[in-house]
């Protein structure tokens, strides 16, 4: 496909997404219906679609319209790229620019702050209350693609050896300062899942801040029995097992989410016991709670536009419930860790404060916050100790 045809495909997909379709699913359906498109074409179209979704508000503003065409046009204009080279009307290219499109005002000229920062109006003050002066740079970082990070399986190999193994398969990477197990993939990231290092469980795909959050918990759980109460796909459970936790149990209210976990654990060469009804007496319980995902909006840009005040309120209620359900499972003297990939204090520090206010016998012993300015996703973890 030509670059112009890729833009035309992205415009069609964006039209469906703006009508309410889910981007990932729409891209998959498009690939199935257009078998002639190679993997390079599909990847380029996906990049266009996700770039536009990350910058949806500013692109709509610059393109002066909420259609796939206007959003794509706005994206190119606000990046300072000349749309005429792509909107040629030749072959499968988008139709040439109309006189009206050519006469559009300068991109983002007098756009309000939430438009420039690509965020919903009501979310901006809440982020400002949480992040202060870092708000604008953090939101700006969320307008760009996220790096691809790998977690080196420390139980099986070293970061240097994994890096060499990947290099032999043409995958370039560099150690990332956020965490001793993190490699940032700098070249040929699309080869990772087919690589021997990945297949053999030497590396896993995992955000660097997510790895750093587990590393912050490890000093409290080395050799201990840890329950990952919201295990989902098991990313944290696997990192805990590889990092030296004694025994790792995994639980999730939605057990289907853990279906890949046994295979992932086998690949990593570690043991994770999936439990439907966790019992008490745990040395430590990790609650990696469902959240707005605001720290990961680079990866899931649709979530940035879907969040409502009502949904956020529901999430904080679920977060409180999870802390109330999980905390009695910790033995006296044990640890309760609470983590989210949210940048909003109402999902982070405020939840810990509310928990400490309504319960007795807990002390906060550690807290760490990461934002995309540290390189990875936004992340929060607090570790509480239960009195003896
Ligand atoms: C942020 S995700 C977990 C991600 C996972 N820990 C990882 O590292 O890949 C949150 C998970 O919490 C689960 N969850 C939601 N409510 C829950 C509850 N009341 N009890 C246990 N798990 C819950 C969801 O099903 C979801 O899988």
From TrEMBL:
Domain SAM-dependent MTase RsmB/NOP-type: 138-388
One of the GO BP terms on file: RNA methylation
Active-site residues (renumbered): 341 (nucleophile)
Record keyword Transferase present: yes
A GO molecular-function descriptor: RNA methyltransferase activity
Record-listed S-adenosyl-L-methionine binding positions: 252, 273, 288
Keywords: Methyltransferase, RNA-binding, S-adenosyl-L-methionine, Transferase
Superkingdom as given in the UniProt entry: Bacteria
Family: Belongs to the class I-like SAM-binding methyltransferase superfamily. RsmB/NOP family.
Protein name: 16S rRNA (Cytosine967-C5)-methyltransferase
Organism: Silicimonas algicola
């Amino acid at each position: 496909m030509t670059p112009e045809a890729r833009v035309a495909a992205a415009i069609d997909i964006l039209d469906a997404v703006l009508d309410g379709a889910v981007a990932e699913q729409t891209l998959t359906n498009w690939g199935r219906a257009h078998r002639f498109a190679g993997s390079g074409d599909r990847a380029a179209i996906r990049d266009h679609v996700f770039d536009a979704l990350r910058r949806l508000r500013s692109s709509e503003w610059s393109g002066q319209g909420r259609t796939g065409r206007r959003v794509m046009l706005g994206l190119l204009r606000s990046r300072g790229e000349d749309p005429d080279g792509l909107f040629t009307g030749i072959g499968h290219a988008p139709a040439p620019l109309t006189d009206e499109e050519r006469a559009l005002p300068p991109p983002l000229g007098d756009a309000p702050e939430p438009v420039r920062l690509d965020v919903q109006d009501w979310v901006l003050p809440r982020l400002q209350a949480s992040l202060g002066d870092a708000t604008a740079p953090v939101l700006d970082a969320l307008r760009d693609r996220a790096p691809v990070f790998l977690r080196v399986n420390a139980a099986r190999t070293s970061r240097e050896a994994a890096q060499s193994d990947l290099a032999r398969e043409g995958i370039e990477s560099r150690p990332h300062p956020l965490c001793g197990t993190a490699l940032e993939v700098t070249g040929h990231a699309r080869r990772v899942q087919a690589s021997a290092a990945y297949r053999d469980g030497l590396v896993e795909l995992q955000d660097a801040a997510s790895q750093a959050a587990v590393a912050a918990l490890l000093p409290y759980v080395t050799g201990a029995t840890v329950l990952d109460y919201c295990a989902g796909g098991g990313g944290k459970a696997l990192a805990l097992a590889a990092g030296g936790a004694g025994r790792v149990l995994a639980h999730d209210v939605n057990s289907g989410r853990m279906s890949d976990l046994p295979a992932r654990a086998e690949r990593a060469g570690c043991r994770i016991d999936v439990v439907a009804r966790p019992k008490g007496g745990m040395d430590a319980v990790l609650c990696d709670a469902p959240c707005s995902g605001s720290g990961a909006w680079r990866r899931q840009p649709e979530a940035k536009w879907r969040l409502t005040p009502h949904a956020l309120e529901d999430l904080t209620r679920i977060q409180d419930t999870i802390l109330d359900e999980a905390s009695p499972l910790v033995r006296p003297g044990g640890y309760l860790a609470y983590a989210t990939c949210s940048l909003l204090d109402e999902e982070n520090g405020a939840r810990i404060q509310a928990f400490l206010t309504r319960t007795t016998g807990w002390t906060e012993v550690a807290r760490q916050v990461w934002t995309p300015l540290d390189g990875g996703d936004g992340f929060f973890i607090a570790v509480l100790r239960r009195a003896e």
